[in-house]
Amino acid sequence: MSFASPLFLWYFLPATLVAYWVLPARFRNALLSVVSLVFYVFGGLSFVFALLTVIAVNFASGLAIDSDRMHQRLPQRKALLVATVGFDLAVLGIWKYAGFATSQIHNLAKAFGDDSSPILQVALPIGISFFTFHHLSYVVDVYRHSRKAQRSPVQFITYIAMFPQLVAGPIVRYHEIAEQLSAIPKNRFEDFAAGVPRFSLGLAKKVLVADTVAPVADTVFRMDSSILTTPVAWLGVVAYTLQIYFDFSGYSDMAIGLARMFGFKFPENFNRPYSSLSITDFWQRWHMSLSRWFRDYLYIPLGGNRGSSFATYRNLWIIFVASGFWHGAAWTFLIWGMYHGGWLVIERATGLAKVPDDRWVVPRRAITLLIVMIGWVFFRASDITEAGHVLQRMFVWHGGAVPAEVTTVLTDFRTLVFALACLVVLVPRGFVMGKLLDDGKSALASGLRIAYTGVAAPYAAVVVAAGTLSPFLYFKF
Amino acid sequence: MTEKDIPLAKGPDEIPTPGPGRESKATKAVIALLGVGLLFGPWAAYAAGARSQPVPGENRALAGRPQIDGFKTFNEITAYAADHFPLRDAAIRGNKNLIHDLFGESPSYFGSAGNQQVLVGDNGWLYFMDDFNEACSPKIPLKQVVAGVQRLNKMLTDSGRRLVLTVPPDKSTVDTANLPKSFELKQCSEEARAQRWKAIRSMGIPGYVDVRSAVEKQEKEKGTPAFLKYDTHWNQDSAVTFVESVVKELDPTLLQHTQVQGGQTFTEKGDLDILANGAPGKDFPYQAVYIVRDGVTPRQTPEDLSKVKGAYTITHVHSATTGPATLFQPRTTWIGDSFTERALTPPGKITPFFADLVRVPELTKAVLAQGQDPGFYAKARARMIAEIVKSRVTVVELVERTFAGVNNEGSMWTPAFLNALQDALDKAPKQ
C-alpha cells in the first residue's frame, strides 16, 4: 500500500488515527502493531507469516542474548549472535539474492554447454531489506549492551513493523528508538500538528514532482540507442536525478511525518544531498539512515579507519559494494556501489574530502553532482548494456531531431515542474526544508507549514484522487 | 577514531531530531485543522451525501464490493477504495479543468491507466498499449487458447452444430507504418505476434475466417490504412470486408444482390484520443459505408441483460426479404466484441444477411458489468451457453488481444466455460 494512494490516505490513515486518538495510551503500541501488519498484508498475505517468523526468531534471540545466563557464557552468547545474524542474512539472501545467484550460475553453466541449471524465481517480500537491517540492528545493539532486550513482543513488533518505515525506511537503529517505544506519547494534538506538515511536504514531493518527471526518465531510458541523441540522454539522466531524490526523500518525509503523528521521532534521512561538495559529503547527506547503519554495524566492526590507509580503503569499498547489493540484486547496483566506493577512496587518498567547505563551492558542487548523475545511470538502467548506451550517448556527441516520444511526454506542465525542481536543487545548501518545517520557529516556518498542509498536500491529494481515473477503452459500448 | 573522520553519515545529532515548532496554539490548531481536512474531508463530504460516480469518458462500472476470496480480497479492497472514495469525481474534474485552464493540455498521471494505455506513433497515430502488453505478457498460454478453440469446434461439430471463428487483428499488427521506431515492448511483441498468428492460422478449424489477410489485401488495393488514426478500430471499408468475409464462409451466395455504398461524412470520437487526452475528446470525420441488399428489410432489437443500462446488451436480428437477396436462415449466435458492435450499429452491416441472429457480447464485458451488478457474470455466461445451444451456427469474433489475452472468467477457452457448455450440449438435442 503506497502512502500516495486513496486506500492509505482516506481509509487506512484516518481510521488508524481515529483509533489511536480514542484508545487509552496503553493500547496504542498494540494498535500500531496490528495496523502495521494489516498494512503489510496488502503487499502479500503470505509474506506476513514470513515477517512474523523472523520477528519471533529475533525477539527470542534478543531475550536469550540479554539473559543473565548468557552473560556468564560469553562464547555461547557470541555464537548465538552469529547464528541470529546468519539467520537474518540467510533470509535476506534467499529471498532477495537466490534468483540472481541461480541465474548467474545458469549463465555460467550455459557458457559451458549445460542448459539444465535451474533459475530460482522467488517473490520478494516487500521491505525485506529494511526489516532485516532493523533486526540486525536490534540483536547487535542488545549484544553490545547498548540497549536492553525488548521484553514486550508488542513493542518489538512496533519497532520492526511500524508502517511508516516498514517498506521504505528510514532505517531506524534500535538504540535510536528503544526509549520511545516504552514512553507513552503525551500530546496527541501536538504530535498531529507537528507531523502533518512534514507528511504534506513528502506527499507533495512524491506526487507533484517525482511522479511528474518520472515519465521523462522512463521514456528516455527505454529508447532505442539508435535514436537517442546526446541532449535527450542528458535530459533523461537529469529527470531521473530529480525523480529519485524527490521520490525517496518525499517518502522519507512522509515516514517521518507519519511517525510524528503517532508520537515517534525518526532520524532524518536526507540533507540536501545534491548540494554536496564531494562524494564523501554526498554520503553524509543521502540516505543517511543507511550510511549510519553501515557505519555502526559494518564499517566500525571491520576496523573503520583505525588501521592502515589500505585497510581503510578496503573497508570503505566493502561498505559500498554491500550498499550497492543492498539496493538490488543486479550487476548494475554492484557497479554503482563500487563506483561510489571508488570515489570515496580517491577523495580520501588525495585529501579532496578535507577541502574546507567554503573553497571553490560552485565547481565542487557541479562536479559532485555530475559524478552522482553518472552513477544514477547504472542505478536506473535495466542492465549494463543499457547503462553503457546511455553513457556513450551522454559523452559522445550524437545529434538529431528530438524523438516524438520525448516531445509527447514533455507537456507544458511537466516542463514547468521539471524546471522548478531543478531550481530547488540549486538553492543554497544551508536551506533544508524538512528541518525548517520541523524545527523552524520563524513566521516563515509557520507560513510554510500552513502552505504545505493547506495548499501543496491538498493539491497532491487531488492528483492522487484524479490518478484513479481509469477510462475504459470501449467507452462507446 | 573521531566521527568527523568517518566518511559516512554522521550521527543523529548532525540534524536535530524533529520537535514541534514553538508556535502559537492558534497556528497549531490551524495546521491540525488543515490536516484533518486533508485526511477526513472526503468523509465529511460523504456525510453530506457525496458519492463517487464514474466521470465522462470513464464508461465502466466502478469496482464492486470486495468479496472474501483469499488474497484476491486485498486487491479488491484496493480497487474498491480507489473507485469509491467520496469526491473522487470532483477531484478528477477539478484537476482536469485546472491543468486545461492553466496549460491548455490534459493532465496525465504517473502509473495511472490514462498515462499508460496509449503509445504515440509517428504522424500523430495512436496505438493501444494493451496490444503490446497482451502480446508480451499473455495471461493465458497460447497452447491453451488453441486447445480451447479446438475443443469448442469439436463439441459443436459433434452436436451437429457449426463454428465460424474470426480474429480481427490488432491495429498494431496491420498498420505498423506509423509505429515508433523504438519502444519498450517492440521486440517481444513482434516475436509473440508472429507465433500467435502462426498458431491461429494452423489451428485446423474448418470454419476459420482469415479476416487479417482480407483486410491486408483490401489495404493494399485501396492504398489507405485499414485502421483509424485515433481509434483502436478499423475504418468502414475494413468493417465491410470483415462482414463479407464471415458471410462468404457461411454461404457465398449471400453476397449476391449486395451493394456497398458510400454514405455521408459524419463525426465520431476516437477511443485512443480520449484515452490519451481525456474526455470529451475531439470529433473526427469519417466516411460512412453501407451494405445494401436488394429487398431486405433489416430489423434489430436490443435487450439489456444487465440491470445497468448499456452494460451488456444482447441484440436480436430478424430481417425479412421481399427481393432477390436471400437471408441466412439457420439460427445463428454471434459472439463478438466491439468490432462486431460497430458492424451492428444501425443501419448495420451484419443485419441484412440474417433471418434469425442473436448477438451476444463476449465475456469480458460480463465481468466488467459485474462491478455494478453483482452476480451478473453467471447470468451472462448461462445466457451465452443457452444461445449457443439453441443455434445451428455459432460465430465467434474476438479481436487478437482479447482472443489470446484474457484469462479466468473473461475467456471462453477455460475448462470451466467449456465444461459448462459441454454439459448443456449433452442435455440438448442434436441439431
Description:
The complex is a heterodimer of chains A (477) and B (431). Chain A is mostly helical and 477 residues long. Chain A has two domains: 6-184, no CATH class; 191-277 and 355-466, no CATH class. Helix content of chain A is 71%, strand content 0%. In chain A, helix 11 (230-261) packs across helix 17 (384-395), helix 13 (288-299) packs across helix 14 and helix 14 (309-327) packs antiparallel against helix 15. The longest helix of chain A is centred in the first third of the chain and has 38 residues, at 74-111. Chain A is globular and about 70 Å long. Chain B is an alpha/beta fold. Chain B has one domain. Chain B is 42% helix and 15% strand. Chain B is built from 16 helices and 13 strands. Chain B has helices at residues 25-47, 72-84, 88-103, 113-116, 129-136, 142-158, 171-174, 186-201, 211-222, 236-250, 271-277, 338-344, 363-369, 376-390, 400-403, 415-427, and strands spanning 118-120, 126-128, 162-166, 208-209, 258-268, 284-293, 296-297, 300-304, 313-317, 320-321, 332-336, 357-361, 393-397. In chain B, the strands form four sheets. A seven-stranded mixed sheet of chain B has the order 4-3-13-11-12-9-8. A two-stranded antiparallel ribbon of chain B has the order 1-2. The longest helix of chain B is centred in the N-terminal third of the chain and has 23 residues, at 25-47. Chain B is globular and about 90 Å long. Residues 11-18 and 111-115 of chain B have low confidence and may be disordered. Chains A and B meet through helix 1, helix 10, helix 13, helix 15 and helix 18 of A and helix 1, helix 2, helix 3, helix 4 and helix 11 of B.
Features of this protein?
heterodimer; A: 477 residues; mainly alpha; B: alpha/beta; seven-stranded mixed sheet; two-stranded antiparallel ribbon; 16 helices; 42% helix
